[in-house]
Amino acid sequence: MGLKPNVVFVLGGPGSGKGTQCERLSRELGYVHLSAGELLRQARESGSEEGALLDEYLREGRIVPVELSLGLLRKAMIASGGTRFLIDGFPRNQDNLDGWERIMGKEADVTCVLFLECPESVLEARLLHRGLSSGRSDDNLESARKRFRTYVETTLPVVEHFQSCGLVRRVDGSQDMDTVFANTCAALSDAMEREVMAATRAQIEAATDNDTAAYAAMCCDDATGAGCTGSAAIALKTPADVETWGSKGASANAAGTPFELLNPRMQIMGNVALLSYLRQNGGGDAGREAAVEETRVWLGKGGRWRLKHLHCSAIKSAQP
Ligand SMILES: Nc1ncnc2c1ncn2[C@@H]1O[C@H](COP(=O)(O)OP(=O)(O)O)[C@@H](O)[C@H]1O
Ligand SMILES: Nc1ccn([C@H]2C[C@H](O)[C@@H](COP(=O)(O)OP(=O)(O)O)O2)c(=O)n1
């Protein structure tokens, strides 16, 4: 099975800093940032037949039917080619949530919900200030108050739903931008760890399936592998490189064998993740048994985790 898209929902009142934080997170941590509100504004401007209807919804601070917002999000997710998403301003009500679960529930994994908390007085001041230059028809006091009411009545219950699933990471959005960013990064660390584990599993599955193209697609252009051969690091970029690598460390890649990643240790530094584990290939009747210490260095960029380097120990045990 390939890698499912990993999604972080970013919620908070209007003006809580969702767009500001997502823009920086996407730049520094390599996520694809998609703003539901921005996609709707673009759709309104595109001259489509829904334009006039959208204009009314946006001015009134009402939430548009999920078919429309999720349709735009889904298209943008596919067009981005990424697997790691910050989805900003969605799901904003029960209709959004139901639509997501119906259409995307099996297609994507929600790793966490980043929730920026901010008092209404701060939000109002920010939106009025933003209104001086944003050109947004809803950055005025009347629309801001309507949007805040909509947020309290319809979005907070969605946050409570995610809270009961243990997915909410709360960050005080009223602090200065750098402090909010630092707290946001810390709040995302466990979600990022899960993304890296999922990417690692998907890449090992590609190896055990002999899917060298899928494996290579998860590598950086300058990726290298070292260890198994006892010689210098070799390039790990093209399917042919992966083939060469596999043939040298064949026992650890016994075709179709199930595997376990034991004792994983992970360190995340910005958009770099370092993961070490003992990879145990159980084979049972199906194949050989082998254990290898592996360290993978992953780089988060362009909306994906890409392998930068793989180091393997010698095979610790193998049965013919
Ligand atoms: N931590 C912060 N402190 C002060 N102003 C902020 C902060 N975060 C965002 N802003 C400003 O507040 C306004 C709203 O931020 P934005 O990111 O657009 O919010 P949202 O996407 O949640 O509506 C913007 O003008 C932005 O520059
Ligand atoms: N899931 C969504 C997200 C936004 N919208 C609409 C309604 C919102 O008032 C506007 C603007 O949302 P956006 O997230 O860009 O901005 P604010 O958080 O309100 O500042 O877009 C929607 O209908 N459905």
TrEMBL record:
Requisite cofactors: Mg(2+)
Gene Ontology terms, MF aspect: ATP binding; calcium/calmodulin-dependent protein kinase activity; calmodulin binding; nucleobase-containing compound kinase activity; phosphotransferase activity, phosphate group as acceptor
Keywords, alphabetical: ATP-binding, Cytoplasm, Kinase, Nucleotide-binding, Nucleus, Pyrimidine biosynthesis, Transferase
Key word Transferase present: yes
Residue numbers binding ATP: G15, S16, G17, K18, G19, T20, R130, Q175
Gene3D superfamilies found in the cross-reference section: 3.10.450.50, P-loop containing nucleotide triphosphate hydrolases
Single GO biological process annotation from the record: 'de novo' pyrimidine nucleobase biosynthetic process
Co-factor: note: Binds 1 Mg(2+) ion per monomer.
Binding site for CMP: N96
Compartment annotation: Cytoplasm; Nucleus
Amino-acid positions noted as binding a ribonucleoside 5'-phosphate in the UniProt annotation, renumbered to this chain: R41, R62, I63, V64, G89, F90, P91, R92, R136, R147
A Pfam cross-reference name: ADK
Domain Calcium/calmodulin-dependent protein kinase II association-domain: 193-314
Enzyme Commission number(s): 2.7.4.14
Keyword Magnesium attached: no
Quaternary organization: Monomer.
Similarity comment: family membership: Belongs to the adenylate kinase family. UMP-CMP kinase subfamily.
Domains as described in the record: Consists of three domains, a large central CORE domain and two small peripheral domains, NMPbind and LID, which undergo movements during catalysis. The LID domain closes over the site of phosphoryl transfer upon ATP binding. Assembling and dissambling the active center during each catalytic cycle provides an effective means to prevent ATP hydrolysis.
Function: Catalyzes the phosphorylation of pyrimidine nucleoside monophosphates at the expense of ATP. Plays an important role in de novo pyrimidine nucleotide biosynthesis. Has preference for UMP and CMP as phosphate acceptors.
Name of the molecule in the record: UMP-CMP kinase
UniProt organism field: Tribonema minus
Taxon lineage: Eukaryota, Sar, Stramenopiles, Ochrophyta, PX clade
